[in-house]
Specification:
Distance between the termini: 46 Å
Helix content: 10-25%
Low-confidence stretches: 1-73, 82-116
Radius of gyration: 26 Å
Structural class: alpha+beta
Mean pLDDT: 86
Largest sheet: 8 strands, parallel
Strand content: 25-35%
Number of helices: 16
Strand order of the largest sheet: 10-9-8-7-6-5-4-11
């Protein structure tokens, strides 16, 4: 082995392609593998070109900058790439052979004795008790579900987590302040339930709430974070669903709350997946991936297609983010996933029996192409073969679990006729053509929209058969309501390009001086989307007889969050009731630090009417990462005139 290779093994650096941010920790040996974001440094042959940017890690940067190009620096790319793939390596390596070589080094170190491993490198799969049973759970039911996960083939299809939702715990903690199981429901206790689940080759998940109470008003975890995480680890818990009911009274921001849980989970030494359930309150914006492996993007899901499509839109549409992002796909990836909530496959209502299987398949196809966690929620004990076949469809699950970890994104939306694309690790791409309308429709995907051209092979993933070769496009004809085609297009080879991520400067404060908020895309919203540089009615923004070229126009309920990233020192604006307000309407303007749960109101206008004079805002933004502007008022319109942040020192 060359001296250069020995140096790399000792340093254990894995250089990856743009955008991958991760770490592998070898606990016993204290070895660390840093997989850093940045441009790939090497050509496909594995020749080192430049390692200067690694200087961000001062301890090693000085040494690495001295490495010169020599013949000895060429690595056996093919052999290492083959081994990398055999070990289940990440797609980035396939995209650049030399990246695979160096990441293989990281994998080897991570597999050293005592090394830890990443959690949720593909979307978690399992079953959660709430959708089927709500709070009506007990020991016998959970054991029967564990049995059914095995006998039905769910476990072997990849569903490994069995999660008990709210109402498993007693109304009071024990004398030592520890959570205990509700004795009538779970007389054997949670450790015994966990042991039974583990005995079936499954993983054990439990629900808690970061507030004082759970949603069912049982003991929450606030003030007991350390002891609860120690208790869960002692019971053998592998997955925690952390709800957010009553968290508004915590006095902490969401980022602070979840950092506490991650700290104490890490202190237990047990690898536990943390799932944030916060009704879609912007975890992707304030840094949920620093603490958790998945986060909710939506309100609760219900067993009808309107709710299912609505939840999918929070992840793949503009219900939660500016339309320019085309969904939340760029915030998801291996180890951190957008979660549009649990599956309702097998539970659907408000439709006849003949339509139910089609709708179940549409629901499952959407979750698979969106790389959403697959947490089944039906009663597995009475599951029909049709439902089981949907939930265990192997080629659909393979799309969801693809190691490349890209979330699918829309490439077409014409009045409810939609096409989604999800480039895969093997060089092919998955495409969903879906009719969400009430009428029959033909839907076409053109190859130039998915990075392909010419004659391409197409495979039907539900039918599990080849459909032949198609030139330039494929059309799914005569699709009725909820009908769709889930296909795989192309030939194995180098991965197709991913879409371009939104540049940071488009939605984050990055420069010194003044940044108008209307020059940035909001990163989260609730209620009506604001008008940019105009009143909500489309008229110019006017306040106190003055016209403003910049600002935001709002109506009724309108909350938007901007990523200021700690780079803004002041926020300034003039707020006024809009001229299109109803005569007796009242409105209120508030400025928050981060999301609603923090209750950190930086400025509050109080109730304003059409007769109220405009009010000026000039407030300090110390260490604010996310700035939320909220306007609300029935029949009211409001203007944030000249809304801007000031950054003089960064």
């Amino acid at each position: 082995m060359t001296r250069f290779m020995q140096t790399l093994w000792i340093l254990a650096f894995a250089v990856m392609a743009p955008g991958l941010e991760s770490r592998l920790h070898a606990r016993d040996k204290q070895a660390k593998v840093f997989i850093l974001p940045g441009q790939s440094n090497m050509e496909g042959r594995g020749q080192v070109r430049s390692l200067d940017w690694l200087g961000r890690r001062p301890k090693y940067g000085r040494l690495l900058r001295k490495i010169k190009d020599t013949r000895d620096n060429v690595l056996p790319a093919k052999e290492l790439s083959d081994e990398y793939w055999r070990r289940g390596g990440h797609w980035y390596g396939r995209y650049n052979g030399s990246a695979a070589d160096y990441s293989l080094i990281g994998y080897a170190v991570a597999e050293a004795p005592g090394a830890g491993s990443h959690l949720a490198m593909t979307p978690p799969m399992g079953w959660n008790s709430w959708n089927a049973f709500e709070k009506d759970i007990d020991e016998d039911k959970i054991k029967a579900i564990a049995d059914a996960m095995v006998t039905s083939g769910m476990r072997d299809a990849g569903y490994t987590y069995l999660v008990l939702d709210d109402a498993w715990m007693a109304k009071e903690r024990d004398k030592d302040g520890r959570l205990v199981a509700e004795p009538q429901k779970f007389p054997g206790g949670m450790k015994a339930i966990g042991d039974y689940i583990h005995s079936k080759g499954l993983k054990f998940g439990l629900y808690e709430d970061r507030g004082k109470w759970t949603c069912q008003q049982l003991p929450g975890s606030f003030g007991h974070e350390r002891i609860d995480m120690e208790t869960f680890a002692g019971w053998g818990v592998d997955y925690i669903k952390m709800d957010s009911c009553f968290a508004e009274s915590n006095g902490r921001m969401s980022s602070e709350d979840h950092a506490i849980y991650r700290k104490w989970i890490k202190a237990t030494g047990r690898p536990i997946v943390l799932s944030i359930s916060d009704f879609g309150n912007a975890a992707w914006a304030w840094g949920g991936k620093e603490s958790a492996q998945l986060w909710r993007t939506s309100n609760d899901i219900y067993p009808w297609m309107g709710s299912i499509y609505g939840c999918a839109e929070t992840s793949a549409g503009d219900r939660r983010i500016h339309p320019a992002f085309n969904g939340l796909w760029q915030f998801a990836g291996p180890g951190h996933w957008n979660d549009p909530d649990m599956l309702q496959v097998g539970n659907l209502k408000r439709m006849d029996e003949g339509s139910r299987e089609i709708a179940d398949r549409a629901h499952f196809s959407l979750w698979c192409i969106l790389a959403a966690p697959l947490m089944a929620g039906n009663d597995l004990r009475t599951m029909t073969d049709k439902v089981r076949n949907v939930l265990t469809a192997p080629e659909l699950i393979a799309v969801n679990q693809d190691k490349r970890g890209l979330q699918g994104y829309k490439i077409l939306n014409q009045g409810g006729c939609e096409v989604y694309n999800k480039p895969l690790a093997d060089g092919t791409t998955a495409v969903l053509l879906l009719n969400k309308t009430a009428k029959k429709a033909d839907i076409t995907v053109h190859w130039d929209k998915i990075g392909l051209s010419g004659n391409q092979p197409v495979r039907d993933l539900w039918a599990r058969k080849e459909l032949g070769r198609f030139k330039d496009s494929f059309t799914a004809g005569n699709l009725g309501p909820h009908e769709h085609r889930m296909i795989k297009v192309g030939r194995p080879g180098p991965p197709l390009p991913a879409p371009t991520k939104m540049p940071l400067e488009k939605y984050t404060v990055t420069r010194k001086g003044t940044t108008y908020l209307s020059d940035l895309y909001y990163i989260w919203k609730a209620g009506n989307a604001p008008a940019y540089d105009a009143a909500f009615s489309g008229d110019p923004i006017r306040a106190a007889g003055q016209a403003f070229d910049k600002g935001l126009g709002c109506k009724a309920k309108c909350a938007v969050m901007f990523k200021v990233n700690g780079r803004a020192e002041r926020f300034r604006a003039v707020v006024a009731m809009g001229k299109s307000s109803a005569p007796d309407a009242k409105g209120r303007f508030r400025v928050y630090n981060e999301d609603f749960f923090a209750n950190r109101v930086l400025w509050d206008s109080g109730q304003m009417t059409a007769d109220s004079p405009p009010k000026e805002i000039d407030i300090e933004l110390k260490d604010v990462q996310c700035l939320m502007l909220v306007f609300d008022g029935k029949g009211a319109a409001g203007d944030w005139a000249d809304a801007r942040v000031i950054n003089e020192s960064h």
